[in-house]
């Protein structure tokens, strides 16, 4: 790649040959150079993913800086990157932990039957944005209501006949765990309500009130998840994405200016190589 870059730069400085269109020649070489750099980059990435770390000739050192870093250093970098309120991972962790703590407090204070459903509802329905959480909560509420009505009808009709619940449990689990993740929160919550009602009916005598408790617990957990989503970073990663994109543009602006200057004039001002290296290092950070 370095030889190709040197050859390309040499051809750009040679007076055009009348026998061949210089622009067509430069376009071909530029396309070939871009394809070669992409191929080398992919090859280096695959080699890093499948084998031990080793030097990557022909590529900037900043591009795969982690290839030569030790495992403790990589852990330090990852932990340091996320130990800040600006980290989306940190924001999600705080939102989830606060929601679980509040759900546990509410379930214990109100002495809700099967209170762990409150925590499970908050954990499964919480999203990274308040809007997405509200959409999931609405779908889950409808699905839980329909599933609870179906579970109540099943418990009333089957009564204490555990053989019926035992026969239905495996097919219900197969359908719930296959269709639920694909169908969305409504299907997932509705079918899961049928599954837990069928399972609990084999452990101890239950009535239709189990379905009622399921509705109350899921709605409580959904409300807690929605409150946490509204109070803690309701826009999710949107703000961090804007800040990161702005930082990337600011970092690449000097590099673009230097590139255009070199392409237009054929030479660079004194100190341009150092400026370009600094701009490249800043760009690679993002």
Structure write-up:
The protein has 286 residues and is mainly α. It is 76% helix and 0% strand. It is built from eleven helices and no strands. It has helices at residues 2-12, 22-50, 71-82, 88-109, 116-125, 130-158, 162-183, 185-203, 209-231, 238-265, 272-284. The longest helix is centred in the N-terminal third of the chain and has 29 residues, at 22-50. The radius of gyration is 30 Å and the shape is elongated. The mean pLDDT is 83. Residues 104-228 form the Integral membrane bound transporter domain. This is FUSC family protein. Its main location: membrane. It is a multi-pass membrane protein.
Short description:
Helices cover 76% and strands 0% of the residues.
Secondary structure blueprint with pairings:
Layout: H1 2-12, H2 22-50, H3 71-82, H4 88-109, H5 116-125, H6 130-158, H7 162-183, H8 185-203, H9 209-231, H10 238-265, H11 272-284
Organism: Actinospica acidiphila
Transmembrane segments: 101-125, 137-157, 163-183, 214-233
Subcellular location: Membrane
Write down the secondary-structure element order: HHHHHHHHHHH
Number of contiguous helices: 11
Helix content range: over 70%
Mean pLDDT: 83
Q: Tell me, what's the shape?
A: elongated
Largest sheet: none
SS class: mainly alpha
**Annotation, overall tally of beta strands:** 0
C-alpha-based Rg, rounded = 30 Å
Query: End-to-end distance, in Å?
Result: 24 Å
Could you name the ranges where pLDDT drops below 50 across 5 or more consecutive residues?
none
- Give the percentage of residues in beta strands: under 5%
Protein name: FUSC family protein
Membrane topology: Multi-pass membrane protein
InterPro entries: Memb_transporter_dom (IPR049453)
Keywords: Membrane, Transmembrane, Transmembrane helix
């Amino acid at each position: 790649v370095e030889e190709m870059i040197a050859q390309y730069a040499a051809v750009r400085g040679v007076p055009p040959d009348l026998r061949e269109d210089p622009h067509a020649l430069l376009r071909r070489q530029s396309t070939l150079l871009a394809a070669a750099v992409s191929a080398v980059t992919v090859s280096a990435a695959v080699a890093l993913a499948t084998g031990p770390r080793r030097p990557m000739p022909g590529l900037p050192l900043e591009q795969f800086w982690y290839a030569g870093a030790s495992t403790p250093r990589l852990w330090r970098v990852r932990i340091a990157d996320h130990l800040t309120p600006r980290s989306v991972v940190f924001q999600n962790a705080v939102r989830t932990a606060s929601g679980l703590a509040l759900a546990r407090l509410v379930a214990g204070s109100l002495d809700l039957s099967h209170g762990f459903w409150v925590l499970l509802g908050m954990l499964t329905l919480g999203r990274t944005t308040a809007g997405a959480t509200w959409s999931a909560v609405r779908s889950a509420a409808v699905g839980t209501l329909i599933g609870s009505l179906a579970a109540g009808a099943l418990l009333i009709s089957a009564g204490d006949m555990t053989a019926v619940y035992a026969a239905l449990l495996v097919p219900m689990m197969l359908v719930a765990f296959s269709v639920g993740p694909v169908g969305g929160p409504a299907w997932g919550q509705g079918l899961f309500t049928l599954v837990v009602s069928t399972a609990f009916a084999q452990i101890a005598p239950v009535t239709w009130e189990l379905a009622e408790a399921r509705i109350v617990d899921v709605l409580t957990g959904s409300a807690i998840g929605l409150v946490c989503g509204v109070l803690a970073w309701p826009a999710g990663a949107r703000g961090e994405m804007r800040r990161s994109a702005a930082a990337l543009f600011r970092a690449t602006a000097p590099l673009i200016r230097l590139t255009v200057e070199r392409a237009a004039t054929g030479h660079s001002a004194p100190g341009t190589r150092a400026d370009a290296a600094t701009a490249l290092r800043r760009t690679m950070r993002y």
